[in-house]
Design brief:
This protein folds into 2 domains: about 40 residues; about 190 residues, no CATH class. The protein is elongated. With about 325 residues, it is an alpha+beta fold. A hairpin with a 2-residue loop joins strand 11 and strand 12. It contains 5 helices and 15 strands. Strands 2, 3, 5, 6, 9, 11, 12, 13, 14 and 15 form a 10-stranded mixed beta sheet that branches. A 5-stranded mixed beta sheet has the order 1-4-10-7-8, with no helix packed on it. Helices cover about 15% and strands about 30% of the residues.
């Protein structure tokens, strides 16, 4: 009997031990194979994965949408997203230092050295260039196109290498650069050089058309030893007052008969306690006016087909 009881106890011990092993293995197996499921509260991203050691691993990072679609993406480099038009990030900041977006130009003279007026120049300012203008050109008549009008005159002169002959009328539009009043104190002619007229043909439009005389008109004789600018008969000379809202147009007609003269005008101004001088020329070059005495003269009649020779000067 005692031997039978001992055998039964050993059998139950073995059964209990086997059962414990089966339970432990099943528990461990289930623990290691825990399924990772999406977390609905975390926008579908996986929860932290549980590993057998009991430590938590970080969730797998969400791929950046532009990392694989941008052809210029490189490891370690990211490109900032471009804000869509109309979004707050797309609009300039009110504190931006970009002066191109916020800068303004009031037209006022800034600083004590700024000139408080501007002068624009029309070099060939005849009322009717086809009637009044005359030019020296180093070409035969067959190579000279008919005279032109208005804004086409400077291009015509440049294309032919022409020089104003006998007289040249220049228009100076003087305007203040701000609200302050500027006084035109005086006008002076400065001769750069003077020589003999070139031996070229003279070309002019139809004679006898005549022309008006505007106010603020002046004359100067470039053949004089010291040319001066004087108002035309019956007109008032300087000073004149100008401002941004009240400009003046001054007409200066320079005459030459015996010389080829390069010249410019000096305008003296004052404003408050400031004063200065502006050089006025042909857009960076001196004006040029030449006499045509003794040169062959060709005229182009209004509506005519060709240049024809007239009596020499």
């Amino acid at each position: 009997m005692p031997g039978l009881i001992g055998t039964a106890r050993r059998r139950w011990a073995l059964i209990a031990a086997g059962t414990a092993v089966v339970v432990a293995v099943s528990t461990a197996f289930a623990f290691d194979l825990k399924v990772v499921r999406p977390d609905a509260a975390n926008n579908g991203r996986p929860e932290a994965t549980v590993i057998s050691s009991g430590q938590r691993a970080p969730a797998a990072p969400t791929p950046h949408p532009s990392a694989s679609t941008s052809p210029s993406a490189r490891p370690g480099h990211t490109r900032a997203p471009v804000p869509a038009p109309g979004t707050p990030d797309a609009e300039p900041s009110p504190h931006s230092t970009d002066t191109s977006a916020h800068g303004t130009d009031t037209g006022r003279a800034q600083g004590s050295d700024a000139v408080p007026l501007t002068v624009s120049t029309r070099t060939y300012a005849w009322d009717d260039p086809q009637c009044e203008a005359k030019y020296l050109i180093d070409r035969p008549p067959s190579q000279v196109s008919p005279p032109v009008m208005g804004q086409d005159v400077p291009g015509w002169v440049k294309a032919h290498g022409a020089v104003a002959a006998d007289a040249q009328r220049v228009a100076l539009t003087v305007q203040g650069a701000g609200d302050e009043t500027v006084v035109i104190e005086s006008l002076h002619v400065r001769v750069v050089d003077s020589g003999a007229p070139p031996a070229w043909n003279a070309y002019e439009g139809s004679s006898g058309c005549g022309g008006g005389v505007e106010t603020r008109s002046f004359d100067t004789d470039l053949d004089a030893a010291h040319p001066v600018i004087v108002p035309k008969a019956g007109q008032r000379g300087v000073p004149y007052k100008v401002s941004q809202s009240d400009p003046e147009v001054l007409y200066v007609t320079a005459h030459a008969s015996a010389h080829d003269v390069r010249w410019y005008v000096e305008l003296q101004w004052s404003s408050g306690g400031r004063q200065g001088t502006i050089r006025i020329d042909d857009h960076g070059r001196p004006f040029r006016t030449s006499g045509s005495r003794g040169r062959p003269v060709y005229e182009y009649p209004v509506g005519g087909p060709d240049w024809f020779r007239v009596t020499e000067n």
